[in-house]
Every structure is written in C-alpha cells, then in structure tokens.
Amino acid sequence: MTRSKQAPALPTAGNIPDGAAGAGKYSFLRGQSSYLSLPVNAPPPPPDAARRTIWLAAVGLALAVFAAYHNSLAVPFVFDDQPAIVENGSIRHLWPLGSVLAPDLAGGLTVSGRPLVNLSLAGNYAVGGGAVTGYHVFNLVIHVLAGLTLLGVVRRTLRQPALAARFGPAALPLGVAVAALWLLHPLQTETVTYVVQRAESLMALCYLLTLYAFIRGTAAERPGGWFALSLAACLLGMAAKEVMVTAPLLVLLYDRTFVAGTMAEAWRRRWRYYSGLAGTWLLLAWLVAGTAGRGGTAGFGLSVGPGQYLLTQCEAIVHYLRLAVWPDPLVFDYGTATVSGLGQVGLQAGLLVALAAGTLVALARRPVWGLAGAWFFLILAPSSSVVPVASQTMAEHRMYLPLAVIMAGAVLGLYRWLGRRSLLVCGLVAAVFGALTMRRNADYQTEQGLWADTVAKRPQNGRAWNNLGKALFSAGRPAEAVVRYEEAIRLEPAEPEPYYNLGLALARLNRPTDAISRYEQALRLRPEYPEAHNNLGNALLAAGRPDEAGSHYEEAVRLRPGFAEAHSNLANVRLEQGRVAEAIKHGEEAVRQDPRHAEARYNLGNALAQAGQLAAAQVHYEEALRLKPAYADVANNLGNVLVGLDRLPEAIAAYERALQLDPGYPDARRNLAQVLIHLGRLPEAVARYQQLAQARPDDAAIRTELAQLRQLAR
C-alpha cells in the first residue's frame, strides 16, 4: 500500500486554492460529513496483516464464485456461441495475429469489431480446442478478476475523505460484501455461463481496471505507472465492447467528485491523462465503422426507430431494476419485441425520468449520489437508450456492470441502518444468491432445456420457438421440431430462418416437395441466404433436378466464397454433369476451406478418379474414411481405385469394409465378386454371396447373382 510522505492539508473555507473550489465545491460539502470531523481511530493494522486480510478475502470470493458456478463447466455452446466459436475459423490459430484481431466475419457476430474477445477465444482454442470446459473456466476467471477489481474500487472509494467518516473503518468488509453480492447475483449468469457474452465481462473488467488504476494514481507519489495502466485498460476495453465508450466520462466524474472537486480542476491537473482517455475513442470509432452497424443489427435506419427503441428501454430498464431486487424470472432470450406507444410504458418512463432528473440534480448538489446515478445510466446508455439494437431489444447481460452500483447502494444503506450486523445480512443474502445461481445454471445444462425454459417464460418469442425446434432437430426428433418451427412462423411470419429450418426437418422426414417450398419461402424473404441456397440445391438434386441444384450451389458460394459444403456439393453436381475440371476445382476449394470435411474429400476423390488421377483420389478417400470411419460409399470407391492401381488384395479389404458397414450394399458385393472371380477364387465369391443371402433372405437380386456364381463355379 503506497503512503504519502506528508499528509495533504485538509481543505477548509480559508485554504481552498483558487479555481479548485467554487460553488461546486461548497455544494459538495453541504450534506456531507466535514473533512474536519473525521474520527480519531486506532492505528491501522500493519501493512503485512492488511495484505493478508485482503488476500484471504480474495481467495474466499474466488472459492465462492467457483462453488456457485461449478455446475456450469459442462454447459454446451448455445445460440451465438455457434457462429462466434464453433464456426469461427479465425480462432483456430494464434498466428498470424492480424487475422485473429481483424477476422473476416459477418458484422453481426458477437465477436465482430471486438478483437480482444476474439483473441481470448483463440487463446482458449489453442489450449483446449473445442472442449467447452476451458471456455467456461476462462469466463469464471474474468468474472472473479472483475469482482476483485470492484472490491478494490469500493474499498478505496470508501476511504476517500467524503466517505471516510462513515465508512472508512469498515472499508474492506464493505467492499467484500459489495463484491460478493455482485459476483454471486443470479442476474450475472447470462454473462458468465453463456460463453460468448464474455464480451460483457471483459469490457467490465477493463472498465473497472481503468477506474481502479486512476484511483491508485491519484494517491501515488509516482502516478505515471498507474495512469499508464488506466489508459491501457481503457484502450483494451474499447476492443472488447462498445459500452466502454462511457469509461472516460465516468472517470472524470469520479475525479470531480472525490479528488479534484471540480471538472475544471480535474482537467487542469490531468489534462494529458484525459486527452489519452479521449484518444481511445478513435480505436472504438474505427472498430464500430468496420462492422457496418453490426451487420445491420444495430444503429439507425433499421426496422426499429430510435423513439420506439427508447420506449422499449423504459420497460427493459425498470425490468432490470426489479430483477436486481428479485431475480425471477430470468430469461435467456427476450426476443425482438418492441413497445409501440408511450401508453404501454407510461409508469416506467415516469420513474426513469424521475431517476434521471434526480441524478442530474445530485451531480450538482450531492455529487456522491450523482456519481452513483451516473454509473447506472451512463453504462446502460450505449445499449439501452436511443441507438437501436434490433436483434435483441432486452438482454440481462446489459446489467452486468450497472448492477455493481445497486449492490453498493444496498450494502452501504444496510450498514448505515444496522452497522456491523449488516455484514451478516449481506453474507446470508450472498449465500442465497449463490444457491439461486446454481439453480439457474441448471437451466443451461442442455440446449433443449434452455430453450424450453425460455419458451415457457416468453411464449410470444418466435426466435425462442425456432431455437427450441433446432435443439429438437439436433437431438434426432425432426417431427417435434416441425411443430416448433410452425409456431415460430405463426408468431414471426416475416422471419426467414424458421422457414429454412422447417425445410431441413421436412427433408429429414422424406418430404422433399414440402422442403423445397419452405426453402423457397425463406429465399423470398432473404434472397442472400447461402445456407438456404445450399440446402435447396440438395433437395433439388434429390428430386432429380441437377441443373437447378447447380445454380443454387453457385449462388451459395457467390454469397459466401468460403462455404466449404456448398463448394463440395457443386463439385458433385459438376461431376454428374460431366464437367470434371470444374468438379476438381470446387472440390479442392472445399477441402482447402475445411480439410476435415469428409464429404468434400469424397467428392474430390470421385472427381480425381474420373479424371484418371487414381493415386490422388486414393489419398482423399483414405482421409475421408479416417474422418468418417462408417462411410460405406467411400470404402467401395476406394476399392475401385485400388483395383485400377492393380492392388487387388487391398481392394478386397476395402470392399469387405464397405460390406461390413452396409451388408446389403449391391455395388460393393458385385465389385468384390468380380475381383474374386478375376483372381480365380470362385468358391470364396460363392461363399461370400451365401453369407449375404442368409443375411438378406428377401433380396431377389442376391439370389439371382448367387445362382450365376454357382453356375460359373461348376
């Protein structure tokens, strides 16, 4: 703990420097305990003892958090985790760093324009690949570090002259209480348990570090290092999430409230530092511009106007406040619903106007209270004011950092009322919060359970019905998925994704005509929909319409040049059309985009075999079998290539593998018989067919071919 060589003079009406006080300074003193009324306390504990106490508190908080979240470590990737993590090729490597920090991704992903978030995911992948546990552990570490930084901010703030008389002697236990309630509150689960929402917690950690390092700098003999850390944290925060935009303003308000006394004095003392903080906005502006309005999901000119969005936020913010006090029901996805008129949210709007007006008045007359209100409103403002976020009009993770000031107010209010006994109350509440957090994490255990919970709580949310259908489809229950998709379409008929997903389910149920019509409806609503083009191509190909299928595959790769599956499918169609060179080109591109795509390897192998490049085809067939061992078609075609390479014993093994995977595979059994006949091993060929005839007694073709083989063997 840094100590000053000489305690500063206590400000009084007679010794306040010119320019450092004025009306703002005097109004600050009104209603506060006088600096001269600080009680005479016992000597502080030795530094080593204080450090040990702080470390013990930090360890205790960390253990409490891991206990509350221990059942979240196996929660699967859900919702936006899929495109931002599972399908995000830019996190598959840490070098070159440029492609990690500036990935070529759609602007609407959670990681878009947020290089610090994408880098953290790449670090996770480098350590543990796609195993979900590592991502959850990292989220918990961020959450704990943010809570410990909050503890430091609260503890040092309560020791500031404006608050020391009332709270200074209990600054550490009060800070621990605030941090514990904030860390364990079940409202935080969306940010911590939903992996990709580390964007919120990373930003919050940087926000708190920016403020904490500033506080340390103002009390240090050599503040340069602390101010440099504050600037670095602010810059990193801008690379995590746009909400960080308000951090420089909040630091300035803190300086005015607790250190400098006025805005002018804060600027006079630290103008270089504040210029640096303002400079971090340049990075944020560049990052925001690069996402093109977050892929058309945020900003002005959307289907949701600023006024309509502001009214919706009146409902949302009051709802958040209620959840801070009574965290039930917690909802994973509130959907895209909006408020149409002031009459729907008149009471909520009135309450928020009163709170905002009270904050403005307090900033002038009671700066500590004003700073608390500013913390709440400023941090919520980027996502919960007039700038529409059309993809998610309400979201619990937006309360992650604003919740800190509510918990601080509750703890300090209890302390004023109950004294030290309030710490016991806070401990009991924290334990309840921890239990509720564990219970909430249970809802995340399966994707199906999470969306079923969401539908139960928000039955008018069409997106939730759609995602419940996707979870059921992934679980192998397409008929049940169809019912959910149809409900999603009923609720939100202008959304293309439920039509597309319904097409997938109908195709799985062998209803190709119905599937084609649903894909076409999805494309009418969103013509630039590469997945719908690709799967419509699949349905048309299955219906014997390869030329139409090829045109949709072409459109899919035009819309998304790196779409490996569409390239692979186009290779298959081109081969069927006799355009072998094009088939090889698209097959090679598919493999380049996704080397682990077994279908792409298979289709490329087929094209190479057709071109007479048998050795190259063999390589891709063998790799396809390694990636997908139960792929009977590949084993059969590998046998054909090996026959062409005059490696007949290996060809026999390949055909036998195909027949093990699919005992009734006609091509494989005929090919095997021909090789055995070529080698003069007719009895083996007959024996093989007898086994097949016994396994499939109703197969007339097998009986006919067996009779022919027996005649040859005579």
Which structural traits does this protein have?
single chain, 714 residues, mainly alpha, Serine Threonine Protein Phosphatase 5, Tetratricopeptide repeat, 35 helices, 70% helix
Give the strand tally.
Answer: 0
- Which stretches are poorly predicted, pLDDT < 50 over at least 5 residues? 1-42
Specify Rg, calculated over alpha carbons: 33 Å
Number of helices: 35
Roughly what fraction of the amino acids lie in strands? under 5%
Can you summarize the main beta sheet?
none
Structural class: mainly alpha
Residues in helices, as a percent range: 55-70%
Could you write a compact summary of the structure shown?
This protein is mainly α. Among the domains are: 49-439, no CATH class; 630-714, Serine Threonine Protein Phosphatase 5, Tetratricopeptide repeat, CATH 1.25.40.10. It has 35 helices and no strands.
